[in-house]
UniProtKB/TrEMBL annotation:
SUPFAM superfamilies: C-type lectin-like. The keyword Metal-binding does not apply. The lineage of its organism: Eukaryota, Fungi, Dikarya, Ascomycota, Pezizomycotina. It comes from Lophiostoma macrostomum CBS 122681. GO terms for biological process: methylation. Keywords: Iron, Methyltransferase, Oxidoreductase, Transferase. This is N-methyltransferase. It holds the Pfam family FGE-sulfatase.
């Protein structure tokens, strides 16, 4: 029931340097600051005129903003006290119950900024809790109604607050966004409040870019607390907006009076000729309100026949899936939900993650060469892992004994980057040039014979100081910046290819480093990411678990690989590694495949039943994080109590589960919470289990055939849902394919709109809803996927083992830029030396496909990407599903 007004695009905004801004008013002791670019009124008149004359005979609309003049705001306040209007009461219930918990998450010295604050009686519950917590916080209420700001501040006891300083900001959401970016404000920790399910007044596709704007204006670790109505009970929603006392209808009709004032014509809308109509549109999950004339009328020269509906307000409701998609599209992570006892209204605490990778090809691989923004996200990820997840004293440790010490990788990444830029630009290496000697190539052991490792850079007696490595890294990154600003990235194919190569090389190392770190008991959890509630997740996945079905995969001709001539003079095609080229086709006969991969639970059963005792390297015999132990014992008592959760496994399996843990970046968590995750094990281990289960691991061609079958089926489904004119872009539907009236307009998701040639969808898959690219910092359950065949990268955060040995394909040619790529142990692997011949074709490596939770979307989504590991390599995050012949 809230409104939304955007300042027209292109409106000039002032540059805000820092507070204090000139106070333009005060309410009691509260300063109210004008953050508008100028004293102009918001241009509703244009919106009224435009809305009455829709293009292409579309639906007429009036701006929702009309509802909120002074009378409207009073009427709205009355609505919030109505019994039927459950939203305010729900939010009050949540605030009263959780205000102290919320206050605990507000950092001292921070700014709490509330968007569209309206009446402050609700937020005051939180302000009081912050007072109780003794935290010095500056609260800023943003509203475009100055009288409302003055009136409501005078109604709450701000003068008595010792810790919370209150301010009003007179302006729109957009002005508040600019204000947030001002220097002094920018540095402070922030919590943004957006209460009252106000996001429901935006069209669904408008919310992610709106939130992304605020995400960009805050810092990693800052929070947003967003009220969302998830009630889809048609009756309840209808009555909330169509109360028996008719207050809401008066509120809607008051919008017409406001319009008359703005149009400077008291009789433009004659009130007695109009009625308000409310309707719950179940399909789109929204309530919408209209004004409609009781007889034929003419307004501002526009004829409106009796009964025509003019939309004035919408209130979208969000299911759990819609909420999750929203966070994903907005690049936010949900930390927790403070919900009502009925669970249909929640205050969602979301945070800006330290970095964010999109799931959509048009965003994650908009062009063959990664953009500077792509680099910045990757660097943020690299820094998050290297600078915060490895304790300083562990930098010289080797979490995987046969590999290099951690600090090697910190030097290796910028060195490799620098070497390739130097080569592509015929430039000189960044100093200190001797880094090339020690950081070019890592140790890459043969698992069977550790003595026999591939050529690697010399190991210095003393590694350079961390500080020097970081300074070097900074200089090399600066070099990348300069390449982008000089436009060499587009015009010079050598530079373009080099940048692509080093980018993907870094993404692969990011994952390698993480799977190394996870073997260390000292890994520090990722920054700004609270430890997930693994027990609750396990409980939920158990409730949703379904039988793992066999699917028939029809005979098919599939294409493997891509066209990417290395000497091409343009950069107008996607690049691929040596083993992805040239394109070739394969005929795959029909076979059967299980929907989802083998789980930890199934693997545990296999161990028991076959009397095996060796556990995979992804498990541990002991917990090694105090927090997990504590949580585990707490959770046990809950789970053995009323819920009686036992993961449906029998007694003997309980025995092996007991005392076993699964390694995560949050520490080792009890295996019983990860029973429904895909098992991570070496090919040799998992092949034994597959055989025991009555199947085999599919070949590379079979796995590709599964992926393309899933894609074809999805497109068919999509085409079916598509119907008439549902807004959709590149196989993702807006509004879940529910047609809206009027149509939502162009797709406005996040930073899309990037025009790119070639078409990213030709090579890259949509990763929507798939656990790759750090959607989660851990695997997720696959038990609920038993009825839907898992496609590319959809194994709950694991690569997929194939039974195919890595071999030179016909037409294989080593890349001149990197001749040793497919040739020297497990990728990306402590790098393949620039000049070494390929040597991974030793018959010991098997192909893995897809991607893990830590795989960059450019790799996880590329339909031609090939990865490989030694069959007995135990650390790679790969699982497997079984197939059988027909
Ligand atoms: C109906 S109220 C909601 C008030 C409060 N957040 C709540 O949950 O009760 C919507 C408030 O947002 C303000 N508002 C609406 N659109 C706005 C915009 N674009 N910029 C600033 N304030 C806006 C209105 O003036 C109004 O006070």
């Amino acid at each position: 029931m809230f409104m939304y007004a955007r300042v027209p695009a292109g409106t000039k905004l002032p540059t805000y340097d820092s507070t204090p801004h000139p106070a333009m008013a005060s309410s009691g002791t509260t300063e109210i600051i004008d953050i508008r670019p100028g004293p102009t009124e918001f241009d509703i008149l244009q919106d009224i005129k435009k809305g009455l004359r829709p293009a292409n005979g579309g639906e007429k609309t009036l701006p929702t903003l009309l509802l909120y003049d002074e009378t409207g705001l009073r009427l709205f306040e009355k609505i919030t006290y109505l019994e039927e209007y459950y939203l305010t009461n729900a939010e009050i219930e949540v605030l009263e119950k959780y205000a102290d918990d919320i206050a605990e998450r507000v950092k001292p010295g921070s700014i709490v900024l509330e968007l569209g604050s309206g009446n402050l009686r609700k937020v005051n519950i939180l302000l009081q809790a912050i007072e109780r917590a003794g935290k010095d916080v500056d609260y800023y209420a943003v509203d475009l109604s100055l009288p409302e700001l003055k009136r409501t501040f005078s109604e709450i006891p701000t003068a008595g607050y010792k810790h919370v300083r209150c301010f009003g900001l007179y302006g729109t959401y957009d002005h508040a966004l600019e204000w947030l970016k001002s220097s002094k404000v920018h540095e402070k920790p922030k919590t943004i409040l957006w209460l009252g399910s106000s996001l429901g007044n935006f069209k669904r596709h408008e919310v992610p870019p709106f939130l992304a704007g605020f995400r960009d204006a805050i810092n990693p670790g800052d929070n947003m607390l967003i009220g969302i109505d998830s009630c889809k009970d048609a009756d309840r929603v209808y009555h909330a907006y169509n109360d028996k006392d008719d207050v809401t209808h008066q509120f809607i009709l008051n919008g017409l009076k406001h319009a008359n004032r703005i149009m400077d014509d008291d009789s433009a809308f004659k009130l007695d000729e109009w009625e308000a109509i409310g309707e719950f549109d179940e399909q789109a999950g929204r309530h919408h309100a209209f004004v409609s004339p009781l007889k034929d009328v003419v307004v501002d020269g526009v004829s409106i026949p009796q009964g025509e509906r003019i939309r004035i307000e919408e209130s979208y409701k969000y299911s759990r899936d819609e909420v999750l998609r929203l966070w994903h599209e907005a690049g936010l992570v949900e930390n927790t939900i403070f919900g009502t006892s009925l669970g249909n209204y929640g205050l969602h605490l979301v945070a800006k993650p330290p970095f964010y990778f999109s799931s959509y090809p048009e965003q994650y691989a908009a062009k063959p060469v990664p953009s500077l923004a792509d680099w910045q996200q990757l660097w943020a990820a690299w820094d998050a892992v290297t600078r915060t997840m490895i304790p300083e004293d562990e930098l010289l440790a080797k979490p995987i004994k046969l590999r290099n010490v951690c600090i090697f990788y910190l030097g290796h990444i910028p060195t490799f980057l620098d070497m390739h830029i130097t080569r592509a630009t015929d430039g000189s290496p960044t100093e200190p040039a001797y880094f090339t000697k020690i950081f070019e190539r890592g140790i890459d052991p043969d698992v069977e014979n550790p003595e026999k490792c591939h050529t690697h850079s010399e190991i210095p007696e003393i590694w350079p100081a961390l500080e020097d490595i970081l300074k070097f890294q900074e200089r090399v990154r600066q070099r990348v910046h300069e390449l982008y600003t000089s436009a060499s990235t587009d015009s010079n194919p050598r530079v373009a290819r080099a940048l692509w190569l080093v980018f993907e090389h870094e993404t692969m190392h990011l994952e390698t480093l993480l799977y190394m770190l996870i073997q260390s008991e000292k890994v520090v959890p990722p920054p700004g990411t609270p430890t997930p509630d693994f027990a609750a997740q396990a409980h939920q996945s158990e409730a949703l678990a379904v039988e793992n079905q066999w699917f028939h995969i029809p005979e098919a001709n599939i294409t493997l690989g891509l066209e990417d001539p290395e000497d091409a003079a343009s950069t107008n095609h996607y690049f691929g590694w040596d083993n992805e080229k040239p394109p070739r086709s394969a005929h795959v006969t029909g076979f059967q495949a299980k929907a989802r991969p083998i789980t930890n639970g199934e693997y545990a059963e296999y161990l028991i039943k076959t009397g095996k005792t060796a556990i995979p390297a992804s498990w541990s015999d002991r917990p090694y994080d105090a927090q997990s132990i504590e949580q585990a014992s707490k959770r046990d008592s809950v789970m053995n109590g009323a819920n009686g959760h036992s993961n449906g496994v029998n007694g003997s399996i309980q025995n092996i589960i007991h005392g076993k843990y699964v390694r995560t970046v949050f520490g080792a968590i009890p295996l019983r919470y990860a029973l429904n995750w895909s098992v991570v094990a070496s090919y040799d281990e998992i092949a034994g289990c597959a055989q025991w289960m009555g199947g085999r691991i599919p070949t590379l061609e079979e796995v590709r055939s599964i992926y393309s079958y899933v894609e074809r089926e999805k497109s068919k489904e999509f085409a079916k849902t598509l119907g008439k004119t549902i807004p959709a872009v590149n196989s993702h539907l807006l509004n879940d394919g529910v047609e809206e009236s009027p149509p939502s307009g162009p797709f406005l998701n996040g930073n899309s709109g990037v025009s790119s040639s070639p078409d990213p969808h030709s090579i890259f898959a949509s990763l929507e809803g798939v656990n790759v690219g750090f959607q989660h910092w851990h695997p997720v359950s696959v038990a609920e996927k038993g009825k839907q065949l898992c496609g590319q990268s959809d194994l709950g955060g694991m690569w997929e083992w194939t039974s195919t040995t890595l071999e030179k394909q016909d037409g294989f040619e080593p890349m001149s830029l990197y001749p040793g790529y497919t040739g020297s142990s497990s990728p990306p692997m402590p790098i393949r030396v620039l000049t070494a011949p390929a040597d991974f074709f030793d018959g010991k490596h098997n192909v893995v496909l897809g991607g893990s939770w830590a795989t960059h979307p450019r790799i996880a989504g590329r339909k031609t990407f090939v990865n490989w590991y030694q069959r007995n390599y135990p650390y790679v995050w790969a699982g497997a599903r079984i197939v059988r012949d027909e």
